[in-house]
Backbone:
């Protein structure tokens, strides 16, 4: 047990408290002293009574605020959970899109690698087709020349 000397409303008080609780007790005593000194006139007992009543009023107001804030806090927690769920879904969709993109890139690379081989094999077919087209053009040109 620790002994603490407090001064409230100008009067000293010796108080026992658990070891380590001294700073907290001094802080609380300073709060009570501040309230008691703010009350003018009357006896020391009356000052302490009004200080206690004012502190009790502040405590009650704080409790009401906490009770009002709890439903809002629950709503915020639900909104955060929903946002986290949506984020997880979006990340999953992004992973899937990246996987599809990688597969499409692989397909494209495979097609590009196969393209030179197809192009090398294609010229004779292209040449043949071009030769046929050229023959038709010449035949048409000859017919056009024969038109009076």
Residues:
């Amino acid at each position: 047990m620790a002994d603490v000397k407090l001064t409230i409303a100008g009067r000293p008080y010796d108080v026992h408290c658990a070891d380590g609780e001294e700073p907290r007790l001094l802080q609380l005593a300073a709060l009570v002293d501040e309230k008691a000194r703010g009350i003018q006139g009357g006896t020391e007992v009356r000052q302490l009574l009004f200080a206690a009543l004012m502190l009790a009023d502040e405590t009650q107001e704080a409790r009401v605020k906490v009770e009002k804030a709890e439903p809002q806090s629950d709503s915020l927690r639900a909104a955060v959970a929903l946002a986290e769920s949506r984020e997880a879904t979006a990340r999953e969709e992004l992973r899937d899109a990246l996987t599809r993109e990688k597969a499409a890139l692989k397909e494209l690379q495979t097609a590009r690698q196969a393209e030179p081989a197809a192009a090398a094999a294609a010229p004779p077919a292209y040449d043949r087709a071009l030769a046929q087209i050229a023959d038709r053009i010449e035949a048409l040109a000859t017919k056009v020349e024969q038109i009076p």
